[in-house]
Design goal:
The complex is a heterodimer of chains A (105) and B (114). The relative contact order of chain A is 0.35. Chain A is built from no helices and 9 strands. By secondary structure, chain A is mainly beta. Chain A is globular and about 40 Å long. The mean pLDDT of chain A is 92. In chain A, the strands form 2 sheets. Chain A has a 5-stranded mixed β-sheet with strand order 1-9-8-3-4, with no helix packed on it. In chain A, strands 2-7-6-5 form a 4-stranded antiparallel β-sheet, with no helix packed on it. The N and C termini of chain A lie far apart (39 Å). Chain B has 114 residues and is an all-beta fold. In chain B, a hairpin with a 5-residue loop joins strand 4 and strand 5. Chain B is globular, with a radius of gyration of 13 Å. The termini of chain B are far apart. The mean pLDDT of chain B is 92. Classes of the chains: A mainly beta (105), B mainly beta (114).
């Protein structure tokens, strides 16, 4: 089962793009990469997922490297409401500690 | 609207008592999961079930028990054997095969032992 590694925290200026990295070097060929975010004391919320192609939706973009060993979640124009913990998972049974993103005005 | 419901939102328990947390989903998802979250920490898997009448232990199953008698329901019992039960408990559900949108989470139950 694939495990993921994320930086523990990062800051971002409001209105700027936030790029959140995730390493998943042990991911298998049929495992998707999922991103979630959790605002304090709430359940995590789905953001986006992908297999090998880059993906975009109304919330974010997901860039997956060609070897699928890492990915980057891009919040194109961060707002104060994007302050949250962001989780990258490649295995539904394994959540890491995620990245705490703080968006500053 | 389809979704996953956890109840109660807040729960207080005296030491030595068992307590059951409810989790119900109407998404027709096959799999259901229970996670525990401590302050400033990530989610740790307690139990999961991929089919009715079957479930598997996660990383921290000691002191907990579950049942899966119906597809829609996956209650978690925190027993008196759980030494440090005060935590935020999250239930989730998902499909089990192919591409899907991963988990749908409930809003959580905050358990406090008094």
């Amino acid at each position: 089962d694939a495990k993921t590694t994320q930086p523990p925290s990062m800051d971002c200026a409001e209105g700027r793009a936030a790029n959140l990295p995730c390493n998943h070097s042990t991911i298998s060929g049929n495992e998707y990469v999922y991103w979630y975010r959790q605002i304090h004391s709430q359940g995590p919320q789905y953001i986006i997922h992908g297999l090998k192609n880059n993906e975009t939706n109304e919330m974010a973009s997901l860039i997956i490297t060609e070897d699928r060993k890492s990915s980057t979640l891009i919040l194109p124009h961060a707002t104060l409401r994007d302050t949250a913990v962001y989780y990258c998972i490649a295995d539904k049974l394994s959540f890491g500690a995620g990245t705490t993103v703080t968006v500053r005005a | 609207d389809g979704g996953i419901t956890q109840s109660p939102k807040y729960l207080f328990r005296k030491e030595g008592q068992n307590v059951t947390l409810s989790c119900e989903q109407n998404l027709n998802h096959d799999a259901m999961y229970w996670y525990r979250q401590d302050p400033g920490q990530g989610l740790r898997l307690i139990y999961y079930s991929q089919i009715v009448n079957d479930f598997q232990k996660g990383d921290i199953a000691e002191g907990y028990s579950v049942s899966r008698e119906k597809k829609e329901s996956f209650p978690l019992t925190v027993t008196s054997a759980q030494k440090n039960p005060t935590a935020f408990y999250l239930c989730a559900s998902s499909l089990t095969g192919g591409e899907d949108y991963g988990y749908t989470f409930g809003s959580g139950t905050r358990l406090t032992v008094v």
